[in-house]
């Protein structure tokens, strides 16, 4: 089934972040205002199927270092195409020692096929739910190295503006921040080299 897919560029996401963050903080994550009226016009069974439906993402035009946001189960999900610099950073011991769970030992935070050093099926692509594991805000994408406001040790990652939690570009949480666990990797699979389906797993 081909579902409604909302591709949003990083720039567009920046503009919408305040609204999404405020919505998430109230316990209604992401696009509740968009989805609910649509669902209200459907029968209960149709609405339930649509709300839980998998989402297909065409990544054929995603450049290295770019990230898009899609919606799955009314939650924002990032698809990041990581470049070689990012992948190297994820493996550095200097970065790993900053992390609370560098080996993704908390099994609830990812499917078993993403329990590896890149938290991914294909190391080049990160697919991760964009909801902070502290209280549900949407973190900001901060891929730059050592920016002034985040400090010299910042390896690129996600910064949550609500209470300062930090995650690397595999969604792994830093030590000594409010968020207790890594960001959640949803179930997903590659249908082709350039088509990801979020919400289903191979052989599931
Ligand atoms: S919600 Fe992200 S740090 Fe609190």
How would you describe what is shown here?
With 204 residues, the protein is an alpha+beta fold. It has one domain (10-198): Rieske Iron-sulfur Protein (3-layer Sandwich). Helix content is 22%, strand content 20%. It contains 5 helices and 9 strands, in the order αααβββααββββββ. It has helices spanning 10-25, 32-40, 44-51, 84-91, 93-96; strands spanning 55-58, 67-72, 75-81, 125-129, 140-142, 157-159, 166-168, 188-192, 195-198. The strands form 3 sheets. The protein has a 3-stranded antiparallel sheet, with no helix packed on it. Strands 2-3-4 form a 3-stranded antiparallel sheet, with no helix packed on it. The chain is globular and about 50 Å long. The protein binds FE2/S2 (inorganic) cluster. FE2/S2 (inorganic) cluster binds next to loops.
Topology pattern, helix = H, strand = E: HHHEEEHHEEEEEE
Helix content: 10-25%
Distance between the termini: 16 Å
Q: What's the overall average pLDDT, rounded?
A: 83
- In total, how many beta strands? 9
The CATH superfamily title? Rieske [2Fe-2S] iron-sulphur domain
Structural class, judged by helices and strands?
alpha+beta
Shape: globular
Low-pLDDT stretches are 1-8, 13-40
Specify the CATH architecture: 3-layer Sandwich
Q: Strand count, sense and closure of the main sheet?
A: 3 strands, antiparallel
Q: What is the domain total for the residues?
A: 1
Q: What is the CATH topology? A: Rieske Iron-sulfur Protein
Question: Cα-atom Rg, whole angstroms?
Answer: 16 Å
Describe the oligomeric state of these chains in a short phrase. Answer: single chain
Strand order of the largest sheet: 1-9-8
Number of helices: 5
What's the CATH class label? Answer: Mainly Beta
Identify every distinct bound molecule in the structure, by name, code or SMILES.
FE2/S2 (inorganic) cluster
The proportion of strand residues reads 15-25%
């Amino acid at each position: 089934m081909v579902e409604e897919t909302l591709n949003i560029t990083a720039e567009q996401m920046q503009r919408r972040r305040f609204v999404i963050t405020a919505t998430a903080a109230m316990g209604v994550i992401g696009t509740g205002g968009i989805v609910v009226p649509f669902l209200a016009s459907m029968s209960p069974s149709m609405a339930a199927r649509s709300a839980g439906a998998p989402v297909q993402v065409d990544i054929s035009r995603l450049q290295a270092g770019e990230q898009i946001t899609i919606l799955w189960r009314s939650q924002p999900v990032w698809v990041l195409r990581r470049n070689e610099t990012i992948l190297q950073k994820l493996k550095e011991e200097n970065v790993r020692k900053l992390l609370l769970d560098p080996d993704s030992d908390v099994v609830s935070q990812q499917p078993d096929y993403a329990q590896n050093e890149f938290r991914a099926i294909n190391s080049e692509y990160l697919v991760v739910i964009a909801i902070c594991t502290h209280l549900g805000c949407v973190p900001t994408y901060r891929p730059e190295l050592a920016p002034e406001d985040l400090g010299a040790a910042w390896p690129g990652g996600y910064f949550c503006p609500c209470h300062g939690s930090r995650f690397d570009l595999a969604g792994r949480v830093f030590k000594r921040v409010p968020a207790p666990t890594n960001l959640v990797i949803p179930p997903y699979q590659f249908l082709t080299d350039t088509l990801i389906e979020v919400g289903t797993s191979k052989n599931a």
